[in-house]
Design goal:
Layout: E1 2-4, H1 5-15, E2 30-34, E3 37-41, E4 45-50, E5 59-62, H2 63-71, E6 78-83, E7 87-92, E8 95-100, E9 118-123, H3 124-134, E10 149-153, E11 159-163, E12 167-172, E13 184-188, H4 189-202, H5 214-219, E14 223-229, E15 234-239, E16 242-247, E17 266-271, H6 272-288, E18 292-298, E19 301-308, E20 312-319, E21 328-333, H7 334-341, E22 347-352, E23 359-362, E24 368-371, E25 389-390, E26 413-414
Parallel strand pairs: 25-26
Antiparallel strand pairs: 1-6, 2-3, 2-5, 3-4, 4-16, 6-7, 7-8, 9-14, 10-11, 10-13, 11-12, 12-24, 14-15, 15-16, 17-22, 18-19, 18-21, 19-20, 22-23, 23-24
Helix pairs in contact: 1-2, 3-4, 6-7
Length: about 450
């Protein structure tokens, strides 16, 4: 097989995130050149890149070694690849490498097959951006696999959602698929990141024809083809010369719509930068006080306060853009606040109905985010002694468990409540399968 060095180098760069550095199946550390494609898989996702030419007999290429070789040969040269027994030979100009590899072509995982998949076409830029905005709100604990995924809810409009038990994010995209109403695809975090990588690096520019103006090109959509088979828990994203297959997380995502509060009489609006500065000021003390930040507002100002037994008390003031009509207060984990406001710009609106109910944060063009409160004793802010924090309620606890029973005692604090009732995520939730079958990606 012969191929321009730059073409194979580009293909390897595209599929690199799909190649595991360590794998239970060693062949997954190779890429397969076959049927005019370069293929890579970690059994959760498979990425394929069209090479633009025939590849001849299948060739297995040890990814790490081949990648290092290609970095050091001229990109304008032609690469010749020959599959030997237990090795593959790479030659370009005066450079030659014999890469040992004991894997067998036939054992490389096959391309996943879907039976009569449903098909939709979306603005890829809008979709990828929305998925990446939601990924920060997924759970990190693998014990709750459904919550480690980003939920792509098809319909009118298309929505993305994510929840980690203490936070819930929902973003309505500027896209409509009414014929797919009610279909939910639970995309693993790794698949979302891989899709974003491919879209950024290989998304083809829209074909506008010879008469396209600069304005046409600036407003043109880059379209992405989505196919899915919910019976086999598979999805496929296709654009340009790239195709990404992914297994879908099995299980039922929480019914998040009713969990987003709407009746919020206590509202406050402020600049994101002002809140970020206030959080920077109180963060260290908050960490010494169980992570608690108290927010209280009245009139034209919000007070941001943190206390800790050994460190004392620190406060900062945030100017409200509109005088509030009802005073409000709530305590929230400083970690979640800092993550939300990191890089955030523009006007943020916050609303609550009471100190013990969720707070809703909204910003134009960003996900609506629900954060659960931390229970504190209001009135005189008394620093809390260590060891008095009760266990917080979590999503995915044993079926029927309601969470922490009883109310916090005076002077005690409780961690943030769960943003999703435990019954929403039950034992039916399963991890993405990692089987080497035709269903595997």
């Amino acid at each position: 097989m012969q191929i321009p060095v730059k073409d194979l180098r580009e293909a390897l760069e595209l599929v690199q995130p799909a190649v595991p550095k360590k794998a239970t199946l060693p062949i997954c550390m190779d890429i397969l050149l076959v049927d005019g494609q370069a293929r890579a898989t970690n059994l959760e996702v498979m990425a394929t890149v069209h090479l633009g030419q025939e590849t001849g007999d299948p060739i297995l290429l040890p990814f790490a070694l081949a990648n290092e070789f290609l970095k050091r040969v001229p990109g304008n040269g032609i690469l010749t690849l020959t599959q030997g027994k237990g090795s593959v030979i790479l030659e370009s100009g005066r450079s030659r490498a014999v890469l040992n590899d004991n894997q067998v072509v036939e054992e490389f995982p096959p391309v996943p097959e879907m039976e009569e998949p449903a098909t939709a076409v979306l603005d890829g830029t809008v979709l990828v951006r929305g998925l990446m905005e939601a990924i920060a709100y997924t759970a990190k604990e693998e014990s709750r696999p459904v919550l480690t995924s980003v939920c792509l809810a098809l319909g009118d409009p298309v929505e993305v959602a994510a929840a980690d038990g203490f936070r819930l994010a929902r973003l309505r995209l500027n896209a409509s698929l009414p014929h797919h109403e009610g279909k939910r695809l639970l995309l693993p975090r790794g698949a979302v990141r891989m899709l974003a990588h491919l879209w950024k690096s290989a998304g083809a520019a829209p074909d506008m024809g010879l008469e396209a103006s600069v304005a046409d090109l600036a407003t043109a959509k880059r379209l992405l083809r989505l196919e899915y088979d919910l019976g086999k828990h598979l999805a496929r994203f296709t654009f340009g010369k790239v195709c990404l297959y992914t297994q879908l997380v099995e299980g039922t995502f929480p019914n998040y719509g009713p969990l987003i509060p709407t009746d919020l009489p206590q509202r406050a609006s402020f600049m994101a930068g002002d809140m970020r500065q206030a959080l920077d000021l109180v963060r260290e003390v908050a960490r010494g006080g169980s992570g608690i930040v108290r927010l209280s507002w009245e009139g034209e100002e919000m007070t941001v306060m943190a206390t800790a037994t050994e460190m004392g008390e620190v406060t900062a003031q945030v100017r409200l853009l509109v005088p509030c009509t009802a005073a409000g207060k709530i305590a929230i984990d400083v970690k979640y606040l800092a993550e939300y406001f990191k890089g955030q710009e523009g006007i943020v609106s916050m609303g609550v109905s009471s100190p013990s109910t969720p707070a809703l944060f909204t910003t134009a063009g960003m996900p609506d985010v629900v954060m659960m409160p931390m229970f504190v004793q209001w009135g005189e802010a008394v620093p809390q002694p260590e060891g008095k924090t009760e266990a917080s309620r979590r999503v995915g606890t044993e079926e029927g468990q309601a969470g922490v029973s009883g109310s916090p005692q005076d002077g005690d604090t409780e961690g943030p409540q769960s943003a999703v009732p435990s019954q929403e995520v039950n034992s039916a939730a399963k991890k993405p399968r990692a089987r080497r079958t035709k269903k595997s990606a």
